[in-house]
């Protein structure tokens, strides 16, 4: 019963062959008319359009993130500059204080020397 009759009166093998021939003719006709090429172009256009749209969206996201990071870097730079200025002021203040302490020590040592000399001269 390999040659079962289909409902149209053709065998299964004949139906398969007919389908293959029909498909082959449709492909040839599509090639001649450019329909196959047009379908492929539409398919690639759709696929690559989605890819390009995705890439565009990702680039926009990266641009926004980059702007945000640049803004944060700028804020951090201002903070660092402010801290550097405060540190310089602190160092200048310390150097003034160090000079005052040194000058005071020098005056006290000179006064001590004078007092010592006066005390030695009055003993003799």
Describe the protein.
The protein has 124 residues and is an all-alpha fold. It has one domain. The chain contains two helices and no strands. The protein has helices spanning 12-33, 35-123. It is rod-shaped, with a radius of gyration of 49 Å.
Low-confidence stretches: 1-7
Based on CA inertia axes, which overall geometry fits? rod-shaped
The average pLDDT is 84
Work out the helicity level.
Answer: over 70%
Q: What Rg is obtained from the alpha carbons, in whole angstroms?
A: 49 Å
| Share of β-strand residues | under 5%
Structural domain count = 1
Order of helices and strands: HH
Transmembrane segments: 100-118
Keywords: Membrane, Transmembrane, Transmembrane helix
Region (Disordered): 68-94
Q: Could you outline the blueprint of secondary structure elements for this entry?
A:
Elements: H1 12-33, H2 35-123
What's this model, at a glance?
Keywords: Membrane, Transmembrane, Transmembrane helix. This protein is mainly alpha-helical and 124 residues long. It is built from two helices and no strands.
